[in-house]
Design the sequence.
């Protein structure tokens, strides 16, 4: 008993020193208070995304016109290539006139030929252009489509000969009214064969120039330039 008592009191002394106020060891102090966690950040992010999507949609609507219409519609244009003269459709005939009874729109030997050899389509339209001196040229285009290339060649040969008649131009037939102009036959004539089709073009002005031969050459030049419109007329 006497040998263990000093050891016990020694251990008690160490315990007392450890429990003294200056040497007491405990858990670390809590960290200083900070900002509370923002639990609504995901909702704010979703809101920003929604705003961006709406802005993009509005921009697309404005860029496309917003009403289902094209922002820059392309005008409908003729498929004819460019040429020397600028032709405009006569406002009395804004679209080609097409018929299958060619014989009803012909005269002379041409009429007799079409009575025996029928065409499959006649398409006609009137155009105007302006000369350098300001005169208006009236140009009638007729496209006659035959049943085959052989009939078309015969028809082209007949219409190109003098005194054999022709297809009525739209002024001669009275479809288009031009004061002081009864027909285009005194101007410039040109014809062209394309497989089963024969293109006939006649051009003239109300007043001729002083030189009739020079006038006819000028009108023939206009008629030949108008060949490029035949495709739109025939359809």
Sequence:
């Amino acid at each position: 008993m006497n040998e263990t008592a000093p050891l016990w009191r020694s251990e008690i002394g160490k315990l007392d020193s450890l429990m003294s106020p200056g040497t007491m060891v405990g858990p670390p102090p809590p960290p200083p208070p900070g900002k509370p966690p923002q639990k609504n950040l995901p909702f704010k992010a979703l809101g920003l995304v929604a705003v961006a999507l709406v802005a993009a949609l509005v921009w697309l609507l404005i860029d496309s016109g917003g009403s289902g219409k094209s922002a820059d519609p392309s005008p409908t244009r003729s498929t004819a290539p460019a040429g020397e003269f600028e032709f405009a459709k006569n406002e009395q005939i804004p679209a080609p006139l097409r018929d299958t009874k060619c014989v009803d729109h012909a005269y002379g030997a041409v009429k007799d030929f079409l009575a025996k050899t029928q065409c499959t389509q006649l398409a006609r339209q009137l155009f105007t252009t302006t000369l350098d001196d300001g005169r208006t040229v009236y140009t009638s285009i007729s496209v006659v489509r035959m049943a085959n290339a052989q009939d078309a060649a015969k028809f082209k040969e007949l219409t190109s000969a003098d005194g054999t008649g022709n297809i009525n131009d739209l002024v001669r037939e009275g479809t288009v009214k031009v004061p002081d102009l009864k027909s285009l036959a005194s101007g410039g004539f040109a014809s062209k064969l394309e497989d089963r089709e024969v293109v006939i073009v006649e051009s003239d002005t109300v007043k001729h120039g002083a030189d009739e031969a020079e006038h006819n050459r000028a009108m023939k030049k206009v008629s030949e330039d108008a060949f490029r419109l035949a495709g739109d007329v025939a359809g």
